[in-house]
Known about the structure:
The protein is globular. It has 414 residues and is mostly helical. The protein has helices spanning 6-20, 32-35, 48-61, 102-113, 124-129, 136-152, 160-172, 183-201, 236-257, 265-280, 314-341, 343-356, 361-369, and strands at residues 24-28, 69-73, 209-213, 223-226, 295-299, 304-309, 358-360. The model is unreliable at 299-304 and 377-411 (pLDDT under 50). The protein is 46% helix and 8% strand. The strands form three sheets. Strands 4-3-7 form a three-stranded antiparallel β-sheet. The chain has a two-stranded parallel ribbon with strand order 1-2. The protein folds into three domains: 6-80, Rossmann fold (3-Layer(aba) Sandwich), CATH 3.40.50.300; 102-172, Helicase, Ruva Protein, domain 3, CATH 1.10.8; 183-379, CATH 1.20.58.760. The longest helix has 28 residues, at 314-341. A hairpin with a 4-residue loop joins β5 (295-299) and β6 (304-309).
Amino acid sequence: EMFVGVGASRVRDLFEQAKRHSPCIIFIDEIDAVGRQRGAGLGGSHDEREQTLNQILVEMDGFGTDVHIIIIAATNRPDILDPALTRPGRFDRRVVIDRPDVKGREAIFNVHIRGKPVAANVDVAKLAKATPGFVGADIENTVNEAALLAARRNKKSIGMAEFHDAIERVQLGPERRSRIISPEEKEVIAYHEAGHALVSHFLADALPLRKVTIVPRGLGLGITWYMEDDKLLPTKSQLEARIASMLGGRVAEELVFDEITVGASDDLRRVTQTARAMVTEYGMSKELGPRVYGQKQELVFLGREISEQRDYSDEIARQIDEEVRRIVDEEYELARQILTENRDKLDIVVSRLLEVETLEAEEFVALVEGRPLPSSESNAPQSPQPPVPEEEEESESSGWNRPKLDLPPSPSPA
């Protein structure tokens, strides 16, 4: 704004209008924009933002018991709000809005498909179960993407196939079939993704497979997609199984080609991140015991974490590194053992992947177990079908959304 004091003036006008229209509700979205802790900013203690905040506090204190006005505010960063805002008598009732559970997602789906030509075979309950971690905006985007896909395919209604494809597009990014990949690199990608899938198949605590593909999506050259759920508390065995599964791609490259590529760099980053969290945050190391190592520091005016303070000695730091290495090495050897013992199955899966590019979980399991392949349209090689081509865009694979757990995302891009 051009003039100092405009924010405070507008706050006064807002509350005057509210009093004239009482009873009413004042809703302030993203209140952290003006409600951050005072005195911590780089611009001094009398900047425009603080004057606006001071005026909000004054107006809230000026309400009498006969004024029928409710003030509601929303923020994603309650930790950086000024203490004066959250003291009793002001914003003293906190309501935490978490990501919707399966019932909530089903209700949101019903809201967004209302008025759209949805086919009779669409099962909203199944869609809700297939979208753990989705928020309302994700579900709205999924429904819109499904409608666009149905239009591109010249369909009069939106079917389950369009919804499933839309979920993949939202979570994994759009397909990038125009990307040129040499036959040699495509074979490496196929072995990499098959390695992920095969290791997880033989581990009881691993997430069940949903799909494996060597079609580039988003920033990934291939994707191994697992079926997530709404569980918030993964166990130690489950974390170890995920580490082994993530290492399966690199192990497969080394086993087959006696060489490794840079394709496993993101896998290794997430493996190291998970193993270190097991040791330093979750207390899952017998050597170091059930305690947290490292205190995170935040500067309020930045609104984000900037460093981690070491509250342990150099000897403990060495033990942490050794424990992380031990966890990773053990799971690496487990992945190597699984793929070595099932090398023939690895070759079978790769051969089929190179043929059809995408394997659903049912076909993958049938190949591994030596059963007849299920008949499905998705097993046939896919060919471009749209009369109107889809636009391609850069998009990262979606991540795990688990409160207070820094875990890797389930899709495993090569």
